[in-house]
Amino acid sequence: MTTDSNPRASGTVRATELHDLIAAFAAIGSTGDGGVCRLAATALDQAARDRFRREIDGRGLLARVDPIGNMFGVAMLAPESTDVVIAGSHLDTQPTGGRFDGIYGVLAGLLAVQALRHRAIAEPGRARRNLAVANWTNEEGARFQPSLTGSSVFAGILALEDAYALQDGDGISLGDALAAIDYRESSPLDLQPVRYVELHVEQGDRLERAGADIAAVSGAWAARKISVVFEGEASHTGPMPMASRRDAMRAAARAIEALYDEVERENAGAHASAARISVYPNSPNVVAARVRVWFEIRHEDEAVVLVISSRFLERVKRESALLGVGVSFAADELRGTALLDSAGVDVVRGVVHDLGLKALTLQTIAGHDALAIQKRIPASLIFVPSRGGLSHNPREFTDPQALDKGYAVLVETLWRMATAES
Ligand SMILES: [Zn+2]
Question: Which of 27, 231, 247, 395 has the maximal Cβ count within 10 Å?
Answer without folding.
Answer: 247
